[in-house]
Amino acid sequence: MRRLILVLMLGLVAVTAGVLAAADGMPLWAYGYAAPPPPPGTPAAPPPAAPARPPDVARTVAGSSGSFTRAQIYNRFGPADWFPSSHPPMPEIVAKGREAANVFACSLCHLQHGRGRPE
């Protein structure tokens, strides 16, 4: 009889522990979450957008005396030359390209001294 009571008690403890563990759900803290996930089918919230900067504001670079707008910086046929004294005079194709032939200025992708960019 004692054995039967012991087995029933152990079974009751095991069932109670299982029910309590199922009621708690997943330990979210163990997976790096603070809140439970939304129900399936809920659309994800988009990330907040960064405020747009006006395109006509002149921008500067540390160590340069020049200031250029976004349109001047990304001009395919004459991009901004931030440090004009750091290189010899550029050939016309490097500085301005050939707009009639749709050949972009070399200095759009390469630095004006010809060494490329760190991108």
Structural features, described:
It contains 3 helices and 2 strands. With 119 residues, it is mostly helical. The chain has a domain of 50 residues. The protein has a two-stranded antiparallel ribbon. The radius of gyration is 33 Å and the shape is rod-shaped. The termini are far apart. The model has no long low-confidence stretch (mean pLDDT 84).
The whole-angstrom Rg is 33 Å
Helix share bin: 25-40%
The dominant shape is rod-shaped
Structural class: mainly alpha
Provide a brief overview of the structure.
This protein is mainly alpha-helical and 119 residues long.
Outline the fold blueprint:
Blueprint: H1 2-24, E1 59-60, E2 67-68, H2 70-73, H3 92-95
Antiparallel strand pairs: 1-2
Can you give keywords for this protein?
single chain, 119 residues, mainly alpha, two-stranded antiparallel ribbon, 3 helices, 2 strands, rod-shaped
